[in-house]
Amino acid sequence: MNPLAVIVGFLPFIAFDVLSERDFHDAIGWAAVVALVLTAVFFALGDKRHRGSSVLNGASVGIFGVIAAMDFIGGPDIERWLVTWSAAVVMVALGAIILVMLPVRSFTEEIAKQTVPEEFWRTPTFIRVNRVLSALWGGAQVVLGLLSVVADSGVDLSRGHLDLLLNWVIPIGAYIALIRFTIAYPERAKAAAIAARAGQPVEQTA
Fold first, then answer.
1. Average pLDDT for residues 60-75, to the nearest whole number?
2. Those residues with Cβ within 8 angstroms of residue 79's Cβ, 6 or more apart along the chain or in another chain
3. Which of 123, 130, 135, 142 could form a disulfide with 95 if both were Cys (CB 3.0 to 4.6 A apart)?
């Protein structure tokens, strides 16, 4: 698994999160347009096997297309609602799409196929590893989106630096942990499968 390819798949969502914080008219709509453009560029630059995940690409087109239309066509009330809740909505919607698609197509599986030989694509280890990774990434998006709802709900978070915790410390820590796990877990699962076939005890690692 190439963790960089996973991160690239999330870049449109990261770009939206950053740009949507800008203070100008229709900022949410233009942030969504930039996210759509990035999705199209990454798809166009890749060859048939290196166009990222269709789950992430489809989620990006659907989510940001709806948000852009809402911001550009909707009135001031819609724009104010998007300014407050769009970041949380994007994360929860993305996580929900990843989890709903999991039984059909795990998004990391498509990325892993770029570097894993085809003869391993139908093995139980390959399928299990990618379902675990996709479930963790999808679940993390839902949890972080719900934390964003709490942070943006108007509750006084000044005491105990909860605002810093919910908006920065937990999300950054979660993404670092996810990237590290994405790097380590496939090799651990591969080693465990090889050891099991050889009848050797599997060494437990943290």
1. 96
2. 26, 28, 71
3. 142
Q: Please tell me the distance from the alpha carbon of residue 201 to that of residue 204, in angstroms, as a whole number.
A: 9
Q: Name the amino acid, one letter, at 48.
A: K
Spatial distance between the Cα atoms of 103 and 178, rounded to a whole number of angstroms: 21
Q: Is the pTM of this model over 0.70?
A: yes
pLDDT of residue 83: 92
Which of 33, 20, 127, 142 lies closest to 84, judged by CA? 20
Is the pLDDT at 47 greater than 80, yes or no?
A: no
Whether the predicted pLDDT of 23 surpasses 70: yes
Flag whether pLDDT at 203 surpasses 90: no
